[in-house]
Amino acid sequence: MRNAMPLALLAALAAGSAAHAAPLKRSYPLCSGIRVTAPNLKTQPRDLAFPGRQVLDLQFEARLRQDLQGDHLLRLKVLTPGGFLYQEIAVPFVGSAPDPDKAERAARARSGAASRAEAPPPPRHVPGYPRPLPVQRLVPVVGDTRTRTQYAVRAFLPVAGTSITLGGLFGRWTVQTYLDDQASPCGSATRFSIRN
Predict the structure, then answer these.
(1) In the chain, what are the domain boundaries?
(2) CB atoms near residue 33 (< 10 Å)
(3) N or C: lower Cβ tally within 10 Å for the chain?
(4) Using one digit for the tens of pLDDT, what is the confidence trace for 17-48?
């Protein structure tokens, strides 16, 4: 009799919580990955193994599954082959420009504004940086099977003439994205190699 009450109470709680439980949704991380390329190479390596003596900079194209409006900050943490933080790259960004409606498009075409590029957002002060950083606008790009349209921001990692080549930091590197002030990554890490 002593154990009957707690078991009945547990059964009632379980039934009540099951009735109010929301259906399980499959959620994906907001950041869908990082594409790593070397803009000065004519042919990009398929295995992401870049020749350190031929690469000037590596370009990171971080992709998001949503067009986030407002002011945001994407941080890319670049880790050495030994797992140590090599550099944190801050990329302030705003959402993509909204498509103008028909009336606005017609007015812009009449005034000649349709042929002019939209002004970039003003630079933003980011803690830890001595000068304001340029703000990027999210750029729509072709997505993956989960999200047809994704949104990209770009950052560069200098390679030539840095401690990477001068100090022989060759091997498997990692880059990880963090959104705004979140302590946990907003997507999976990307691994690439810089070889001698």
Answers:
(1) 27-102+136-195
(2) 18
(3) N
(4) 334 333 334 356 899 999 999 999 999 999 99
